[in-house]
Amino acid sequence: MEKRSLQTWLNQAAAPVRRRLILAVSLGLAAGVLLIVQAGLLGAIVHGVVFEGRHVADVFAQLILLPAVMAVRFLLVWAGENCGFQAAVQVKADLRMRLYTHLQRMGPQRLRSRSVGELAHQVVDGVEGLEAYYARFLPQAALAVLIPLAVLAFVFPLDLISGLILLGTAPFIPLFMVLIGGYAEKLNQRQWRRLAALSARFLDSLQGLTTIRAFNASRREAAIIARITDEYRETTVSVLRVAFLSALVLEFLATVSLALVAIFIGFKLLAGDMVFQSGFFILLLAPEFFLPLRSLGTQYHARLSAMAAAEGLLGILSEPTDPLPQRREKVRPRWNTVALELAHIAYRYPGGQTVLRELKMSVGAGTLTVLAGPSGTGKTTALRLMLGSLTPDRGHIVVNGADLSRMPSAAWLAHVAWVPQSAFLFQGTLLENMLLPTDGNPSPTHMEYLDRAAALTGLDRDLAALPQGWHTRLGEAGEGLSGGQRRRLALTRAVLKNAPLILLDEPTAHLDAESRRTVVKALRALAGRHTLVVASHDPEVLGIADSVVWIGSKDSGTC
Description:
Strand order of the largest sheet: 6-9-10-3-11-12
Shape: elongated
Strand content: 5-15%
Helix content: 55-70%
Number of domains: 2
Number of helices: 18
Oligomer: single chain
């Protein structure tokens, strides 16, 4: 990705916090002006006491004013840094919301092609990598111009040669910073990519630890992670080597410039062409002239890290989103029952094969319809099309006489409950997982309805066996529950939503005989109250179906 486009994107992200950044720069500039005042007071005190023979009482007012100026300057520096930090916090919060919204719009199907570890790294570490850029680099870039100009405004009237030395050597610092920074930027980008690869591999290894141990591949996986870690370590050392070289060059240029100023001032003092107070004042200001430039050189690496992080973040934000049509229909239906009609549905995954070619089916309100057929023929795809997470390439889905493609997504999803083959469960209590379809606050009404839903699906017997009931804590992905319990929990959660349409993907797959009978009994109880569409090839589920749609080569068989 081009450097200019990355820089433009970083600057655009700073637009909402421009006022805070301007305030941070203004406070920093005020602190710089007070630094000049501080140097002037110190020069006047030393000159008066040493060369003019004044008593302490004569310079007492200046002695009192000096620590006051230092205290105010400290407060201004602190306030400026705090403004920069608050601006960075807001940018990070806004960017994380943009990423979260974009990932939602990408849809589950597109997200499956992305590594979970890589996404987590970009959303967490990638966004955090921008903090130093907005909190320190941007304010410092402005101060690196403003403070030296303010110093020169005081130096030039006192000594033209010293001002010319400072002005002539100053441009070399950003020049070498850019020259060395170009190479450092390539190393930073390579380092960021390797860190992303390491994060993704490590997270995937943790999630698949059981499988890795089962295949006795722990040592091989550890060796792979060790190799990626060594590559990242070598890249980090390379970046640090360049950073130290950059710091050495900046310090060398500043030292040479200060030495030249000190030499010329010394000769002028010896020749009597300058008073001590002016020479001392210039010598005090000369290091402060280069301090903002040296600080910018230090923070320049924050810019390089931000550019590397921005490349990864833009890679996510530039991903195409789900090609859902613009649904401008203002009518927001509220139905108690749902009937579906799928006419000539065809769908092909991006870059993949066509899974549905000419699917035609009717689902009556309050019926149990089973999608049957061999694995890989498109049963789950058909469910996702009805859910609205996918859009057919051809054909129409009609709901109670209304075209689904013209219906607001939120309005349609309010009518649908989704039970996937592997239901997602949060790490938390069983109750917290159950309240996902609600506002999350368990009221007495919720608990009564929850208990009835659990009794309907057979989850009540599982709750009776759990020591803490609804308050039993679950691990990641429902760790602590059996496969049948997870399936019944997901089914109960769908019942709790009280949606007129429930879509279920292989609800009895991989269950023991008793768990399968419990789920089938729950499906039979739900049929009539809700419209059920179930993808399954289980004979027991087929036996209770009102209609069966066979999805295969013809995609049109209904019985």
